[in-house]
Amino acid sequence: MSFSALKLSEPLLNTLTELGYSKPTAIQKQAIPTILAGKNVIAAAQTGTGKTASFVLPLLEKFTNEHTNNDHKLRGKRIRALILTPTRELAVQVEASIQQYGKNLELTSMAMYGGVDAAAQKQQLIWGVDILVATPGRLLDMAYQRALHFDELEVLVLDEADRMLDMGFIDDINKIIERLPAQRQNLLFSATMSADVRALAKRTINNAVEISIKGNKSSQPKIEQWLITVDKGNKSALLSYLIKEQQWQQALIFIETKHGAAKLVSQLAKRGIKAEAIHGDRTQAVREQIFDDFKTGKLQFLVATGIAARGIDIDGLSRVVNYDLPDKVDDYIHRIGRTGRAGAQGEAISFVAKDNFRNLCAIESRLGHIIERKEFDGFPVKKTVPVSILNYVPKNKR
Ligand code: AMP
């Protein structure tokens, strides 16, 4: 199949030829005609499958036709499409794709994100923008300041919805959606379809066409999962042992409570391992400094409570440790998904004590397989953890 069979017009087809795109990818084949037909879409697709072009191309096609027919003049501070992304990096990348694919068209686009001065962004919005790519926080700020109005919005795209939820943007997303016109087209893209993503889709999108694309092997996360059964009192000694014995360069260590986080940092310090703890009580400035140090490798070991870890988004993170196994299966999936991104190799290690048995069963049932167990001399377990029953259903879910 060629792109022309997808009913894209001449200027777009020329650009695609110039870029050397000879045929649409699987997601593009399915999404482009569906979006052009004005339908809602929920798509499970990973980065690397061509998903950006699968929504950008039909948006450009639709808006350029409206321009040519002159049946829609954009007013100041108005936008036609809003693409929400979890990070500034992704916003910039998606907007660059819009520029690239739309270079022969007369449409405007803009990337808008926090952490930079808002004045220039406000100025850019003054004449209206056809396609705005934004992170949720800054977008809401702009809406509150009336620098931006949604009354002409036609299409909402939630890109990498799972990552947005992972990073704790759900309240912002809900507040944004409340402000949008009820009559609009909705497109949701997500690498994984967790229960949280499904719930968001159900609340916000009616009658969607569902598309599911399996990423090719290279784009699928390669996460090696293993667990160690351990008695509660031995966990910090075991962690120190692994860090030293296996010469870990980096680990994001998840722990249940902020008190536990502070205690673990001091226990590691006693064994000569420098770590920092991040939890809700630390100021924003301190948290950002710690994140930065961890991202650049200056800090090797970061101990975080689940909530505090939400803002952490690190490409190339090699290892996560569930020092405490999470209660919710979704949390386990989110946590391990922070490693092994973009085809890189990642490792997810869980410390499992007897009390965690039910959680372990629930996690392994969801994964559909038992997680490999490793044993280390010097850490015998007094309270053994039985092997899971894969079809186990927690009592309250029966
Ligand atoms: P994405 O999944 O959107 O991150 O895209 C992955 C990469 O594939 C990007 O570098 C795109 O430029 C490229 N790409 C997207 N669609 C096609 C296509 N039909 N043919 C060749 N390359 C493509």
Structural descriptors:
398 residues, alpha/beta, Rossmann fold, 7-stranded parallel sheet, 38% helix, elongated, binds adenosine monophosphate
Q: Report the CATH C-level class of the largest domain.
A: Alpha Beta
Find the CATH topology of the largest domain.
Rossmann fold
Helical segment count = 14
Write the CATH homologous superfamily of the largest domain.
P-loop containing nucleotide triphosphate hydrolases
Helix and strand string, N-terminal first?
HHEHEHEHEHEHHEHEEHEHEHEEHEHE
Largest sheet: 7 strands, parallel
Helical proportion, percent range: 25-40%
Query: Which blocks of ≥5 consecutive residues have pLDDT under 50?
Result: none
Report strand %: 15-25%
Number of domains: 2
Task: List the SSEs and their pairings.
Layout: H1 10-19, H2 26-36, E1 40-44, H3 51-68, E2 79-84, H4 88-101, E3 109-112, H5 119-125, E4 129-134, H6 136-144, E5 155-158, H7 161-166, H8 170-179, E6 185-190, H9 195-204, E7 208-212, E8 222-229, H10 235-245, E9 251-255, H11 258-270, E10 275-278, H12 284-296, E11 301-305, E12 319-322, H13 329-336, E13 345-352, H14 357-367, E14 372-373
Parallel strand pairs: 1-6, 1-7, 2-4, 2-5, 3-4, 5-6, 8-13, 8-14, 9-11, 9-12, 10-11, 12-13
Helix pairs in contact: 2-3, 3-4, 6-8
